Amino acid sequence: MYNYLQQLWTNEEGQDIAEYAVMLAVILVLVVGTVSLIGGNANNAFSAVASSLAQ
Question: How far is CA 38 from CA 7, 12, 27, 30, in A?
Answer without folding.
Answer: 49, 40, 16, 12
